């Protein structure tokens, strides 16, 4: 029988094993895309290392530190082992190296970011839970926003804007080539992790199909909606090809199509509307976030999902998923 750890205000918890910590760390990578599948998580993590050792390493640092933080604070075992306190730390770790560059101070900030992402995840879930909402990737957005905005004020932290943080200026051209389209289709998946490389997105998409055909199909749907919406609005072709306008649509489609709503035709249509709305919001927020090279983090996904999920109780045709559905 496993030893028990008593936590004030909670039922006794099973002592976390190394296996549990490892599972929580790995699954935290897949939970960025709402997937707890170990295989999916490992494929996505491998794809990050394929992009570069820096991206892979900082994602791993974020995952490990977030999981250990949750463990030290006695987060319930089931929550920890599913990676639900880890995924924001993964994104936070990547954001540090993308926006601050690979310097000794960045490793320290990646650890700080992961710790704060875990704490902020608990905060937002506590505040949003009573109104039927979830933190999603809001903790990562908040923590990274504060840290990146503040970095230029500290000479031991700021070493200039890295090339990885800047979206290259491109002429506004409505002419989207076939290459832009198929590159963008896959880059929409990888850009969730700040990666614009199409073949990394292809690997990640394969990993999502490992989690289930439905998961993969809604990722495909979100990417297609993001591409079509960006093209229809006249977004720059080069940015479409880099996935800048479509990654929030992929996340939004996965959220509504796989996690939040039941499997009905009306709900699928709602997921499409949400994905398109997040693409439009990406364009709006990119102006506000020029300091980040016009990369909007995952704010468009969060704002769109919070707004449309809050509307569900007043929309009888849109049915939320319950624990037994």
Description:
With 325 residues, the chain is mostly helical. The chain contains 14 helices and two strands, in the order ββαααααααααααααα. It has a two-stranded antiparallel sheet with strand order 1-2. Strand 1 (4-5) and strand 2 form a beta hairpin. Helix 2 (38-51) packs across helix 3 (53-72) and helix 12 runs parallel beside helix 14. It starts with a strand and ends in a 14-residue tail after the last helix. The relative contact order is 0.11.
Order of helices and strands: EEHHHHHHHHHHHHHH
Strand order of the largest sheet: 1-2
Global structural class: mainly alpha
Indicate the overall shape. globular
The largest pleated sheet is described as: 2 strands, antiparallel
> In total, how many beta strands?
2
Poorly predicted regions are: 1-13
Number of helices: 14
Strand share of the residues?
under 5%
Rg, Å, rounded? 19 Å
Q: How many angstroms separate the termini?
A: 32 Å
User: Roughly what is the average pLDDT, rounded to an integer?
Assistant: 90
Descriptors:
325 residues; two-stranded antiparallel sheet; globular; mainly alpha; disordered N terminus
Helices, strands, pairings?
Blueprint: E1 4-5, E2 13-14, H1 18-30, H2 38-51, H3 53-72, H4 77-81, H5 87-100, H6 104-128, H7 138-150, H8 178-190, H9 198-211, H10 213-233, H11 237-241, H12 247-260, H13 265-288, H14 299-311
Antiparallel strand pairs: 1-2
Helix pairs in contact: 1-2, 1-3, 1-5, 2-3, 2-9, 3-5, 3-6, 5-6, 5-7, 6-7, 8-9, 8-10, 8-12, 9-10, 10-12, 10-13, 12-13, 12-14, 13-14
């Amino acid at each position: 029988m496993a030893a028990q750890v008593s936590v004030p205000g909670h039922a006794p918890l099973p002592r976390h094993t190394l296996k549990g910590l490892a599972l929580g760390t790995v699954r935290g990578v897949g939970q960025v895309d709402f997937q707890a599948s170990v295989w999916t998580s490992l494929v996505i993590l491998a794809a990050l290392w394929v992009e570069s050792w820096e991206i892979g390493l900082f994602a791993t640092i974020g995952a490990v530190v977030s999981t250990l933080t949750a463990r030290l604070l006695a987060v319930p075992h089931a929550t920890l082992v599913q990676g639900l306190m880890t995924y924001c730390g993964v994104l936070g770790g990547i954001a540090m190296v993308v926006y601050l560059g690979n310097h000794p101070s960045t490793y320290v900030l990646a650890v700080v970011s992961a710790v704060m992402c875990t704490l902020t995840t608990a905060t937002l879930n506590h505040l949003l839970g009573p109104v039927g909402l979830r933190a999603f990737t809001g903790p990562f957005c908040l923590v990274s926003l504060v840290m990146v905005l503040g970095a230029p004020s500290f000479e031991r932290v700021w070493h200039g804007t890295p090339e990885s943080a800047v979206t290259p200026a491109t002429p506004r051209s409505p002419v989207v080539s076939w290459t832009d389209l198929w590159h963008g289709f896959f880059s929409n998946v990888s850009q969730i992790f700040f990666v614009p490389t199409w073949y990394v997105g292809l690997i990640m998409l394969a990993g999502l199909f490992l989690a289930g055909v439905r998961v993969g199909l809604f990722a495909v749907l979100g990417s297609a909606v993001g591409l079509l919406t960006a093209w229809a609005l006249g977004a720059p072709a080069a940015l479409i090809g880099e996935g800048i306008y479509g990654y929030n649509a992929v996340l939004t489609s996965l959220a509504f199509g796989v996690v939040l709503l039941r499997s009905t035709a009306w709900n699928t249509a709602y997921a499409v509307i949400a994905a398109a709305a997040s693409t439009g919001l990406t364009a709006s927020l990119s102006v506000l976030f020029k300091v980040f090279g016009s990369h909007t983090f995952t704010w468009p996904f969060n704002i769109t999902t919070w707004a449309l999920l809050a509307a569900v109780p007043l929309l009888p045709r849109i049915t939320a998923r319950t624990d037994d559905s």
